[in-house]
Design brief:
Helices cover about 35% and strands about 15% of the residues. It has 24 helices and 24 strands. Pathway: Protein modification; protein glycosylation.
């Protein structure tokens, strides 16, 4: 059922014919006659339990647990023996036993067989069939930025093979919930339901257990799934975030049909010899049954576990073990050891599993939005409304693709890398907002050197490019030294660059009171972050609607000695090293900034909106978003500045601020604009429709925009 591990990355294949997988064994935990009564759940109560009336009951339970432990030790001795070749026997044996399974597994002759029934799964047997439309439930504990990124590969592999509806149950912290909720909402995969459970509410359940494992407290939360998941949920597959499926998860779900009698728990034996205790002299690992059992994949019969009082059972066991072991080093994996060091493990199967993993890592997740035909699914109103809107569009319209892009839902992964930043308490903090694609990646380090404040970036990438970016970022000392940069991946779809959607995604993740709306090709002056914060106070930004204009310049030189002051910038401007931005191709875009006045200005000055004005501004976080109808090149910033003016923002130019545009090859979209007449026609059409919308929204005051456009 399970493939071997390569490092922390585990690969799951439901095929029983994987001959290269040694000693593959399923373990079922059976209750037999093991019944419990209510127990004190706090470890502190253990010390005083003999003073209360329930002491006899507790002693009886502890006596029964000791008996079970004796049985486990016997089983441990058997499992410590070298694995037998399954082809040598037709029986499904445990260790040296060769007794065939009866129809009532787990109820054989010995008590050990009652508690643990094992069967070698490498023989070829017909798996029970899962109903076509039966929903498969999967539970995953996921916390933090890295785990939220890793779990996507698991989900892709499950979606790729699945033929059944899926219901994911994520036990998450607030970070993972925000990331995964946004991801699944924008992924829009049919017949997939996602629910979240607050891991913070569960910490008190397991935090009393001393823990040294690298996964921290979250690994222990699998122990409380019977209490966490819905009470009417009968069974669930529990997965680690680093699993990759090589076949349909329904084949794993079908194993539940093999559970007999009072068997409640399914595990697979570890492949490591660590627990055998013979790797080196004085090697004393955590005591385990044989090689231990891997909890990266667990089958839980929740209804039976609840009847067994699983909560009390595992607590009592943990309390008893901690009396002698002092702390756990294996999270919830009492009989399983794992470590990031395993990433360097080499074996003859590593290439196969590495390629399998990389396939799903870089696989286009948009291709997984396929319907499950023949299975009625719950109505998704967002998807339904989207389809209705798209059907209303005229496919014969020459501008159909432009109009359709406005409604395209792009899969979005927020905070692709670790992010940690708390805005300053003085309410003046500013976040730089920008968007980029893969061809502008080289600008990131330079911007981080120029702007020390928080940054929110939306990156338009394919799945494969997202992994290239990850490797680039992790290999950069500059980027890895910054925890206040939020990287938000918007996955590619369609033929246009959704520039304004990207800006909106980056804006929505700003957690400071103010935003500096920039572009990735610009380097802000050194010290601009602090200068803008001071301007917030000076210009009373908190109580007025202002857009602070940062004058934009450009250079045609790839190597520029960046000016460290306004005087140095003016000198380079006079020498022809710098120019006012786009003065030679699009003067109107920044002419209202009044660069002649700026040269000598020492105090902020107000300017009026004019047609095609598109400055770079700092505004409050609650400013309007960009209009999504404008994609690719043309009018994307102009429309936004027009909206700010319509909402009566004042444009105030800062006298000692500046930014410089760095040279780069022309973008694909500007090339299309220049070479494709229909592109320009559609842009003009969208522009006129936007102006009409402005007139309807803002009335008589918006007529100036149409008049100004006609005169320009």
């Amino acid at each position: 059922m399970l493939g071997i591990c390569r490092g922390r990355r585990k690969f799951l294949a439901a095929s029983l014919a994987l001959l290269f997988i040694p000693a593959l064994t399923w373990l079922y935990l059976s209750a037999a006659n093991f019944t419990v009564k209510p127990l004190p759940l706090s470890p502190l109560e253990l010390q005083s339990s003999t003073l209360v009336g329930g002491a006899g009951e507790r002693q009886a339970l502890e006596l029964r647990v000791r008996e079970v432990e004796e049985e486990n030790r016997a089983l441990r001795r058997e499992l410590s023996q070298p694995p037998r070749n399954p082809t040598h026997s037709n029986h499904h044996g445990n260790g040296n036993q060769s007794h065939p399974h009866s129809t009532e597994e787990g109820t054989g002759d010995s008590e050990a067989q009652k508690m643990f029934s094992t069967g070698n799964s490498s023989s070829c047997v017909q798996q029970p069939v899962v109903d076509k439309c039966e929903t498969i439930h999967v539970a995953i504990v996921c916390a933090g930025y890295n785990a939220s990124r890793d779990v996507v590969t698991l989900v892709k592999s499950v979606l790729f093979h699945r033929r059944n509806p899926l219901h994911f149950h994520f036990i998450t912290d607030s970070i993972a919930q925000q990331i995964l909720a946004s991801l699944f909402h924008t992924w829009m995969v049919p017949a997939v339901r996602v629910d979240f459970y607050d891991a913070d509410e569960l910490k008190s359940e397991v935090s009393w257990i001393p823990n040294k494992h690298y996964s921290g407290i979250y690994g222990l939360m699998k122990l409380v799934l019977t209490k966490t998941l819905p009470s009417d949920l009968q069974k669930v597959i529990v997965l680690d975030t680093d699993i990759t499926f090589a076949t349909d998860i329904a084949e794993l779900w079908a194993v539940f049909h093999k559970f007999k009698g009072q068997q409640v728990l399914g595990l697979v034996e570890n492949q490591s010899d660590w627990y055998l205790g013979n790797l080196w002299k004085n090697h004393r690992p955590w005591p385990a049954l044989g090689r231990g059992f891997n909890t990266g994949v667990i089958l839980l019969l929740l209804d039976r576990l609840r009847k067994l009082r699983w909560e009390q059972m595992w607590r009592l066991t943990a309390e008893r073990e901690l009396m002698s072991m002092l702390s756990t080093s294996l999270a919830d994996q009492v009989i399983h050891w794992n470590s990031p060091k395993k990433l360097r493990v080499k074996n003859k199967h590593v290439e196969f599993f590495r390629n399998l993993y990389l396939t799903f890592l870089e696989y286009d997740g948009n291709l997984l939005r396929r319907e499950l035909f023949g299975c009625p699914s719950k109505t998704d109103h967002n998807s339904e409304n989207l389809q209705k809107t798209l059907l209303e569009l005229d496919e014969d319209d020459p501008c159909y693709e432009f109009r359709r892009e406005r409604f395209t839902v792009h899969r979005t992964h927020l905070y692709f890398l670790h992010y940690e930043y708390e805005p300053s308490a003085d309410q003046t903090d500013v976040t730089l907002v920008a968007q980029l694609s893969m061809d502008r990646l080289q600008m990131l380090e330079a911007i981080c050197k120029h702007w020390e404040g928080p940054i929110s970036l939306a990156l338009y990438l394919s799945d494969a490019e997202a992994q290239q970016f990850l490797r680039y970022a992790q290999g950069s000392e500059v980027l890895m030294s910054r925890s206040n940069v939020g990287y938000h991946i918007v996955y590619k779809e369609g033929q246009f660059y959704p520039v304004n959607l990207l800006r909106n995604v980056a804006m929505r993740q700003v957690n400071t009171p103010y935003m500096f709306l920039s572009d990735i090709d610009f380097l802000p002056m050194y010290g601009l972050y602090e200068y803008l914060r001071k301007s917030v106070v000076q210009l009373d930004m908190a109580n007025t609607k202002k857009a602070l204009v940062v004058p934009a310049f450009e250079t045609l030189r790839y190597r520029l000695s960046y000016p460290k002051s306004k005087a140095e910038l003016l000198s380079q401007l006079d020498m022809g090293t710098l120019f006012t931005f786009r003065y030679h191709v699009w003067t109107k875009g920044h002419a209202p900034t009044n660069f002649a006045k700026w040269r000598t200005a020492t105090t902020p000055y107000r300017v009026q909106w004019e047609a095609d004005f598109e400055p770079y501004v700092m505004v409050r976080r609650d400013c309007p978003e960009y209009d999504r109808r404008f994609v690719g090149f043309g009018w994307n910033k102009v429309a936004h500045i027009m909206e700010l003016d319509a909402q009566e923002y004042e444009f105030v130019v800062l006298p000692n601020a500046y930014m410089i545009h760095m040279p780069h090859a022309p973008s694909f979209d500007i090339t299309k604009f220049r070479s494709n007449k229909q592109y320009r026609v559609c842009l003009k059409t969208l522009k006129e429709e936007f102006q009409q919308n402005m007139s309807r929204r803002y009335g008589f005051a918006a007529l100036k925009y149409m008049t100004a456009d006609n005169n320009s």
